[in-house]
Amino acid sequence: MEVKELQFGHRRVCLYQLVKGAAPLVYSIDYHENGQLLLEACRQVGCDGFNLVTISGLHWNQELSPWPVDTVVSKDDNFSGGAPQWLPLLTDEVVPQVERLLDAPPTWRMLAGYSLAGLFAVWTAFQCDLFTRILSASGSMWYPGWLEYAREHEPVAALQGIYLSVGDKESTSRNAVLQTVGERTRAMADLMAERGIPSKFELNPGNHFKNPPLRVAKGINWLLHNDND
User: Fold this and answer.
1) What mean pLDDT is reported for the chain?
2) What percent of the chain has pLDDT over 90?
């Protein structure tokens, strides 16, 4: 396996080329670079036949939040709404430069994210058509105003699949906003299914921090093979 690394300011981008020629390309936004852990989890669940790009080092709460909100989780949240500034860098600079390193264009692209990056991945489908599969593992569907926004807007992308998961203990938080994550994640999956988009909701065991690579890998596996479901 060949690994190539690019740097975009403070953001680290790693391309794991597992397949030669045209293949699906998974872009995974991670808090820390964890490509090897994610690929091992993918092997555990039996998914293969794709190439992987990991993106890490982002200013997490700032660059992945779709709009500013007041303190929700802690006094250090800083959800400043920088996603509209980060998305053009992703689509216009990161993606083209990464894909020039491949020996063939991808057959299709998936955008995957965990936690706030999961929310960003779903939000991206409402902004651009670059990614036709979306994965949100333990995504921040609790984000104030998000579900209302999704109900009032249509995805721009012609989505061929969306996968959303949450841990079965994530809604037991003492925080009243975070307590809504389970019902809002399920509602988001239902909303997309009502719009005719192949959708999967999965409830995983554990809290928000239990085995993120495995949760993302399960979503990748379903999105690679959902045509057969």
Assistant:
1) 94
2) 86
The angle that helices 35-45 and 212-225 make with each other, rounded to 10 degrees, is: 60
**CA neighbor of 141 nearest in space, from 87, 191, 211:** 191
Closest CA to 226 of 203, 205, 204, 197: 197
Task: Tell me which residue has tokens 């991808």.
Answer: 106
CA pair distance 139, 157, nearest whole angstrom: 19
Which residues face 137 on adjacent strands? 114, 165
CB contact set of 65 (below 8 Å; sequence gap of 6+): 79, 80, 81, 82, 83, 116, 120, 143
Q: Is the pTM of this model over 0.90?
A: yes
64's CB contacts (< 8 A; 6+ apart) are 29, 58, 82, 83, 86, 113, 116, 117, 119, 120
CA distance 223 to 5: 25
Pairing of strands 2-8, 199-204: unpaired
Asked if 138 contacts 110 with a C-beta cutoff of 8 angstroms, the reply is: no
Going by C-alpha positions, the residue among 87, 77, 82 that lies closest to residue 65 is 82
Q: Would you say residue 227 has pLDDT above 70?
A: no
Helices (H) and strands (E) in the chain, counts: 8, 8
Structure tokens at 143: 């984000």
